[in-house]
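#struct-pred

JT: dropping the chains for the assembly here, can someone run the whole complex?
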Amino acid sequence: MTTEMSGPLLAGRTAIVTGGANGIGAAITRLFAAHEAKVVLVDVDAAAAAALAREVPGVTAVVADVTDRDVALRLAEHQADILVNNVGDFVRPPLNFADADAGEWQGIGEVNLGHVLRVTHAVLPGMIERGRGGSIINLTTVEAHRGIPGHVVYSTYKAAVRHFTRSLGLEVGRHGIRVNAIAPDLVETPQVPYERLVAEEDRHRWPQWAPLGGPGQPADVAGPALFLASELSRFVTGTTVHVDGGSHAAGGWFARPDGSWTNRPLNP
Ligand SMILES: NC(=O)c1ccc[n+]([C@@H]2O[C@H](COP(=O)([O-])OP(=O)(O)OC[C@H]3O[C@@H](n4cnc5c(N)ncnc54)[C@H](O)[C@@H]3O)[C@@H](O)[C@H]2O)c1
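RK: done, full complex below.
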């Protein structure tokens, strides 16, 4: 197989994108379809899913909740070569672990980890059997790599998805199936609407918050997802692409307006 590629990168491939109707998932759906993949998007938002499927040729919408236990088996019928496990959510506003209700852990786990395991487990045997290789892409977060106060359980499950990515990558490499993660941060979506979250008078501060400024857009995540889905990344598995404007690399460092840096940013 040549590594010199031009033209559509996913022609003849079928991709499943969970949560593919809005935000990052929708951008991935659109870009994969533009590269001639058949895309099956799965989403609870029936209106947005139908609208996207109507608008973009090659896209089929399945309206379903990926945390429902029978959905994974239905998805396996689509014989996907590419699976993007994109659904994930904070579920609730920040709350200290000591004050949080233990009854909520399972729900947070289902939305962030349970379906990733179940859908992958359902789709993988067919991927192996068809012998065409494949690519599995799991959406984690910068918070799988650093802590986040107020979302201890969410970050715990997202870190588990990161490790699932690495261990599974080892197991299925011999079948030509690659497993990688994308860890976003600071991407404008319905879940994290920076347009609303950041006041107009503070927007000039983006260059202080992340080396590349921000916010990022869903399309900024779709590009790396296309790379991981396609043969461009044929020797890449078990790893994470950070799509965060540099926030993970920066750790606790912030740029001051004068170009100097601080890791004590009360008055950066
Ligand atoms: N936006 C960011 O900056 C950011 C940062 C870190 C991690 N992430 C991760 O990236 C992924 C996508 O994030 P986003 O910001 O685009 O999310 P979003 O909430 O804006 O969009 C999620 C999509 O998934 C659908 N969905 C939600 N629950 C579902 C379910 N149970 N079954 C089927 N569909 C469901 C929603 O209807 C929506 O279309 C998530 O895993 C998230 O944790 C995003």
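JT: nice. The mean pLDDT is 96. The longest strand covers residues 177-184.
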